[in-house]
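Re: that chain you flagged

S.,

Sorry for the slow reply, it's been a week of failed gels. I finally had a moment to sit down with the sequence you sent. For the record, here it is as I used it:
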Amino acid sequence: MYQVSICYLQENRIEENEHQAFIWYKSQQKKQVLMEHSCTKKLNPIPIINYPEIQKNEGTVNLPIKKPKKPKKIVYRVLGGEGIYNIDRRGCSAGFWVRFQTLELLVTAGHCPGNTTDPEKLDYYHLPWGGTYDFRLIGSMIIRFTQPVDRGFIIRNSTRISATPFITYGFGHEYSIAGTELPDTEGAIVCKSGYHSEVSCGTLFAIYGNLIHADGTSHDNVIIIEGMECVRGDSGGPAFTVDEFTSNVNLVGMVFGGIIENNIPYCFVHPVSAILLEGMEVITIYNTIT
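Prediction finished late last night. Pasting the structure tokens below so you have them in one place:
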């Protein structure tokens, strides 16, 4: 079990104010929150991630120059928040699709495969909500880091799937990704979609904190969402805000961990800007290639 300190955060005070969320999110009152400037606050987390001992250093990434031929007929789509798994059935959640030149890659958490370097265990398959393990190939995780930003990229190398700008929030229901956003107001409502706990929402607790584990390892560029349930299997899922006028969503980032402190869940999210490598762009409803 990890002990975690949340450091480098400014003192914040959340005023009482009711916020109306969507779907499962209910109105709740904000409590006053005081965060210390030093690393003395110790939390007792229930981790949802097991970080590999073997880390890959960030550096120049050589990507393939070819993508699979465009299929004549799309058989199925992979949506943000649906499940993904490898041959060992180690599961995470699909995040969102990005484009790099002519390639399409699915973003998820880099820790999903664990310590493995076996290429077969880096192949990922699609598991929609309520689906079965029928090994519908998405592609291979060709890039992954676990620190300082926990992120992995699965290349679409199956012609049976489509890269889509959508996030699932229920059977047959989906949100359209219109763009990206980094909320700048404490208490702003942020939601996530994940395979295990599905959709839940919370309030922005802190921005760009540094998450330090008891073993001295840390994660940079962390957004902390209070009251949002994030459990094992939700890692990799998209975090987003909802436009109340259009019902489209703007991506905030990707879930990579969480804790429960004093019976209150806290979810850890990396922002989109920290996840993307140079030259990548998020696939949205406005830049989808048909």
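What I noticed first: Helices lie at 272-275.

Talk soon,
D.
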